[in-house]
């Protein structure tokens, strides 16, 4: 048993931390939020060309750095710390996970494109009225003369405005909530029959509702058998999201400790008050538990489905609660300043809050664990 | 990073598991199953078996009787003991006074006192707390005045756990009333049979006799029984704070208790289904199980850091806080599960010879719930632990 990072993993963390740190100070991020496009393509380019981290979790024979889930955890934690909006989760983690499972030479071509920074994915999974159920899919895909076409509406597609392609879950057979008959397809953003209604998200990114009207699509994996690889790849995404949350929460705690030491009331730093100290200790404890669960889930991603689901779901339950508690506490201890948009802490809080529900809430994942219990 | 234990560690687990299964005293097991209050002999029987095997003080240096196990092996050992639900080894002997003796004791003191601790022949109690000195331990008032080759000790100690069984006690006493409060304290070993030592029971809210008041009236203690220099007793006491975190989280115990609670819930009918299938109760169990897993991996992360050469730090305070919160939550849920069945019964209602099997888990559940409120109070209250973390980890 070993929870220590290798020297290479420490170097990876260092380089991502420095790279994002130089580009994501508060003013730079605010300027980005106000810009018309809402993001900076050159950062994605740099992650590919200067750092090579888009290949971090891929095998060397695929052109990657030969890492795995631990490398993903390292990168995602730094993304969280920087409050970066780059679509690493959807492109490298979830997209990469689906492509790795597909495993064909065509998949390898896509992976090469991912590593080179030439494609960016956005997971188009949610539909109006659907919360988290990956099998609850009404959008359909139909094959005609050997070409797949997608029809229907996906909403709240995170990162859609920055994406070159959508990873679309679509039904190719079966009733609406059936796991059988779910397929996963790639649709180019600029394909005919794709229409976006774009909007900013509360946590500094952009999203869109995406309407597909017969848009041409490429099937990933087998038609109608997409659920299991999708669930596994999304579990990798959930775990990566936990790592991102850890990064955000580290910053929330550090900023709060720093602020309470500087802020004086009644002629003393407010950190001198025991009630505040104990709240911050509870934040620290919640954070440490979240770190532990993120490591645990990361190291269990390759286990059989039942064990993997229990591990990942448990991590998301704990991290979701920790994100809420640490986020709310950080704002509370910042007082009125926490209510403004002028400090990083408010932006961390918003991101932490969105992570709570992204890819499944606390209740959703608790129910997944209970589903495993009932089946065993 | 990787989760698996090594083949050697897995073999070690097999070895100690087999040892426990084969060597654990059958009569002690029977009394545990009956739910009767355990006696001194029950605790010591197991300690003596471990002493013979050379496994009673794994964490000690090998020269004094330690096993030389790695931190991971010690973790596995604790884990197996918990899974097997063995009676605890009295920590006041092995984890508290023992390390003070081998760290600060004279060669004569080590030769005289350590073997009895290793073998389980001598029972030690801890004389620290006083009516006026709880969390603020250094404000203790028990006086020791030098008289030739002896100290004459007067004062009152309290919350002295299982002092009714103790052969010896280790006491913090004030030897210099003029000094700053931490500076005037000495660490004395006192024979509990000495004239002037009186042990009086304190009955706790669950009806148990676990703790005591210890009165010291003109007790003459040889100077040779002082550990470390005069007025340096606080150094001894402080050393213990971060010394032994092994098992403090009690993850394996809680895991066993959670499994028992699930099994119990499956036997209780609630609105046409079992309590185990009741969505509200089930969710409580799920959430608790998640918290327990988080604590388990937090402990394992610390263990890995320790194996990598990082000395154990104040993070033990976090294990204590979360560990006790989880234990207390388990007790709450057990109480909730049994409803009035638990509330009405006390452990003492068991007739002599009657086994607990018939009324099964209701025996002692409420008692245990009441008793276990102590865990967030003793060993440095959870509020004190938070103070420690605020200072050490957050720099506040």
Description:
The complex is a heterodimer of chains A (376) and B (396). With 376 residues, chain A is an alpha+beta fold. Chain A has three domains: 7-119, Butyryl-Coa Dehydrogenase, subunit A, domain 1; 122-224, Beta Barrel (Butyryl-CoA Dehydrogenase, subunit A, domain 2); 228-375, Butyryl-CoA Dehydrogenase, subunit A, domain 3 (Up-down Bundle), CATH 1.20.140. Chain A is 52% helix and 16% strand. Chain A contains eleven helices and nine strands. Chain A has helices spanning 7-23, 26-34, 41-51, 69-82, 88-102, 105-115, 227-262, 274-299, 305-334, 344-357, 362-375, and strands at residues 121-124, 140-144, 147-158, 165-171, 182-188, 194-200, 206-220, 264-265, 268-269. In chain A, the strands form two sheets. In chain A, strands 1, 2, 3, 4, 5, 6 and 7 form a seven-stranded mixed sheet that branches. Chain A has a two-stranded antiparallel sheet with strand order 8-9. With 396 residues, chain B is α+β, with helices and mostly antiparallel strands. Chain B has three domains: 7-89, no CATH class; 124-230, Butyryl-CoA Dehydrogenase, subunit A, domain 2 (Beta Barrel); 251-392, Butyryl-CoA Dehydrogenase, subunit A, domain 3. Chain B is 45% helix and 16% strand. Chain B has helices spanning 7-23, 26-34, 40-53, 71-83, 91-104, 107-119, 233-241, 251-265, 279-307, 316-338, 340-344, 365-372, 382-392, and strands at residues 124-127, 143-147, 150-161, 168-174, 185-191, 197-203, 209-222, 226-227, 269-270, 273-274. In chain B, the strands form three sheets. In chain B, strands 1-4-5-8 form a four-stranded mixed sheet. In chain B, a hairpin with a 5-residue loop joins strand 6 and strand 7. The longest helix of chain B is centred in the last third of the chain and has 29 residues, at 279-307. Residues 356-360 of chain B have low confidence and may be disordered. The A-B interface holds A 1-5, 70, 257, 260-261, 271-272, 274, 277-278, 280-282, 284-285, 288-293, 295-296, 298-300, 314, 317-318, 366, 369-370, 373 and B 1-5, 9, 72, 282-283, 286-287, 289-291, 293-298, 300-301, 303-305, 308, 315, 318, 321-322, 383, 386-387, 389-390, 393-396.
């Amino acid at each position: 048993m070993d929870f220590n990072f290798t020297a290479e993993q420490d170097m990876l963390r260092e380089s991502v931390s420095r790279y994002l740190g130089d580009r994501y100070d508060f003013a730079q991020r605010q300027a980005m939020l106000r810009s018309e496009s809402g993001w900076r393509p050159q950062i994605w380019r740099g992650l590919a060309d200067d750092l090579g981290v888009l290949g971090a979790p891929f095998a060397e024979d695929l052109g990657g750095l030969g890492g795995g889930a631990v490398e993903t955890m390292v990168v995602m934690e730094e993304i969280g710390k920087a409050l970066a909006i780059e679509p690493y989760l959807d492109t490298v983690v979830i997209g990469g996970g689906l492509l790795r499972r597909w495993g064909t030479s065509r998949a390898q071509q896509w992976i090469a494109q991912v590593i080179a920074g030439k494609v960016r994915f956005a997971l188009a999974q949610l539909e109006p009225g659907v919360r988290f159920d990956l099998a609850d899919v009404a959008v359909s895909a139909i094959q005609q003369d050997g070409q797949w076409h997608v029809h229907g509406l996906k909403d709240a597609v995170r990162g859609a405005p920055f994406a070159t392609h959508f990873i679309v879950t679509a039904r190719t057979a079966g009733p609406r909530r059936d796991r059988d008959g779910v397929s996963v397809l790639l649709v180019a953003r600029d394909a005919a029959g794709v229409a976006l209604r774009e909007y900013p998200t509360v946590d500094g990114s952009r999203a869109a509702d995406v309407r597909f009207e017969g848009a041409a699509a490429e099937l990933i994996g087998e038609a109608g058998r997409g659920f299991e690889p999708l669930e596994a790849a999304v579990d990798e995404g959930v775990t990566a999201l936990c790592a991102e949350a850890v990064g955000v929460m580290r910053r929330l705690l550090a900023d709060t400790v720093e602020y309470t030491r500087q802020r004086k009331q009644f002629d003393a730093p407010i950190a001198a008050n025991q009630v505040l100290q104990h709240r911050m200790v509870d934040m620290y404890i919640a954070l440490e538990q979240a770190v532990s669960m993120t490591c645990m889930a990361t190291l269990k991603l390759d286990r059989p489905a039942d064990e993997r689901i229990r591990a990942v779901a448990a991590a998301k339950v704990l991290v979701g609660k920790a994100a809420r508690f640490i986020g709310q506490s950080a704002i509370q201890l910042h007082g009125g300043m926490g209510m403004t948009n002028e400090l990083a802490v408010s932006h961390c809080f918003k991101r932490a809050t969105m992570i709570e529900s992204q890819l499944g809430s606390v209740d959703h994942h608790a129910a997944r664990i209970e589903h495993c219990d009932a089946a065993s | 990073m990787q989760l698996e234990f090594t083949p050697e560690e897995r073999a070690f687990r097999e070895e100690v598991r087999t040892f426990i299964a084969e060597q654990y005293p059958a009569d002690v097991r029977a009394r545990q199953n009956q739910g009767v209050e355990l006696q001194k002999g029950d605790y010591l029987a197991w300690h003596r078996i471990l002493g013979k095997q050379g496994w009673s003080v794994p964490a000690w240096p090998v020269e004094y009787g330690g096993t030389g196990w790695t931190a991971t092996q010690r973790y596995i050992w604790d884990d197996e003991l918990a899974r097997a639900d063995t009676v605890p080894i009295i920590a006041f002997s092995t984890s508290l006074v023992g390390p003070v003796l081998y760290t600060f004791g004279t060669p004569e003191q080590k030769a005289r006192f350590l073997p009895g601790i290793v073998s389980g022949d001598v029972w030690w109690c801890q004389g620290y707390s006083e009516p006026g000195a709880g969390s603020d331990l250094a404000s203790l008032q028990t006086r020791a005045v030098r008289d030739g080759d002896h100290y004459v000790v007067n004062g009152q100690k309290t919350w002295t756990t299982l002092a009714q069984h103790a052969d010896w006690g280790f006491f913090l006493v004030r030897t210099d009333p003029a000094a700053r409060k931490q500076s005037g304290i000495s660490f004395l070993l006192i024979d509990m049979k000495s004239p002037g030592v009186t042990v009086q029971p304190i009955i706790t809210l669950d009806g148990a006799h676990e703790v005591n008041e210890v009165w010291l009236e003109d007790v003459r203690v040889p100077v040779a029984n002082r550990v470390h220099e005069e007025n340096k007793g606080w150094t001894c006491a402080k050393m213990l704070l971060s010394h032994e975190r092994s098992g403090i989280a009690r993850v394996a115990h809680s895991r066993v208790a959670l499994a028992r609670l699930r099994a119990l819930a499956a036997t209780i009918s609630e609105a046409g289904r079992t309590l185990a299938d009741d969505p509200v109760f089930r969710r409580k169990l799920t959430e608790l199980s998640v918290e327990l897993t988080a604590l388990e991996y937090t402990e394992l992360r610390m263990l890995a850091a320790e194996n990598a050469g990082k000395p154990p730090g104040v993070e033990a305070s976090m294990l204590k806080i979360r560990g006790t919160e989880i234990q207390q939550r388990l007790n709450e849920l057990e109480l909730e599960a049994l409803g009035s069945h638990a509330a009405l019964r006390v452990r003492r209602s068991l007739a002599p010879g009657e086994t607990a099997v018939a009324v099964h888990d209701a025996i002692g559940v409420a008692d245990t719930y009441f008793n276990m409120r102590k865990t967030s109070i003793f060993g440095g209250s959870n509020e004190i632990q938070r103070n420690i973390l605020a200072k050490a980890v957050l720099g506040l």
